[in-house]
């Protein structure tokens, strides 16, 4: 009896598979290779550079493509399946072509309670697209990709809209409509905090590790709501207690200081064939350190 196994994305798996161009032109590949060498040199193990390299190829294509996946795999000595497994895990790696501005509306608990759902509905009506879709480029206007996003740790300024992962705080349906109108007019407004707004591809390149020094210098400080707890602590003379020793519930009475330095500067243990791992087992495989990155 024969069994047919269909490989690839499950029918119920959300999101499209990675598609697009399969190879880069020679000049593009050469340019990306030079940048990749710079990124890889920052890490003791080459495969640790996978995340920034995925941002690098995303800065080229505006999303991940088979060409980008193959490029990362070749640079790091990985299989395309290994790269794809990582690329499809993180939501910041896009699997569909993305506009110049990725507008994300937080619809998680607090933002939703404060009006996030109403903002998303208003933008869908205003732009004529659903979440996950991109506007057409009318008369050369920058395209906007709309999405709903999970919590971005900005609950003190809910509801929050993010544009290319820069914060626009305390939004309303009206202010959000004004925001996307400015984006489509080619007049990106200044984020509430953080650096100046740039295009999606430029943002991806920054995340790959090629930051603009002027933009980095223009990063705004955290706002009053974020620093409220720190202000109260200072007004009341409160501070965290100093940690002088690390204790272990199984340690003896004189073992606290020993435990404090026991794991200092030690690498995490490599995968072991013994399950569960035996105590004090040493990995003897010479390739183990490269597999851990």
What does this protein structure show overall?
A 4-stranded mixed beta sheet has the order 2-1-3-4, with helices on one face. About 35% of the residues lie in helices and about 5% in strands. α1 packs antiparallel against α2 (about 50-60), α2 runs antiparallel to α3 (about 65-75) and α3 crosses α4 (about 80-85). The longest helix has 15 residues, at about 25-40. The protein has helices at about 25-40, 50-60, 65-75, 80-85, 110-115, 115-125, 175-185, 200-205, 215, 230-235, 255-260, 290; strands spanning about 100-105, 145-150, 160-165, 165-170. A hairpin with a 2-residue loop joins β3 (about 160-165) and β4 (about 165-170). The protein has 12 helices and 4 strands, in the order ααααβααβββαααααα. Among the domains are: about 25-85, Orthogonal Bundle (Arc Repressor Mutant, subunit A), CATH 1.10.10; about 100-215, Glutaredoxin. The two termini are about 45 Å apart. With about 290 residues, the protein is α+β, with helices and mostly antiparallel strands. One of its GO terms (molecular function) is NADH dehydrogenase (quinone) (non-electrogenic) activity. Its EC number is 1.6.5.9. Keywords: Iron, Iron-sulfur, Metal-binding, Oxidoreductase. This is NADH-quinone oxidoreductase subunit NuoE. InterPro entries: NuoE_dom, NuoE_N, Thioredoxin-like_sf.
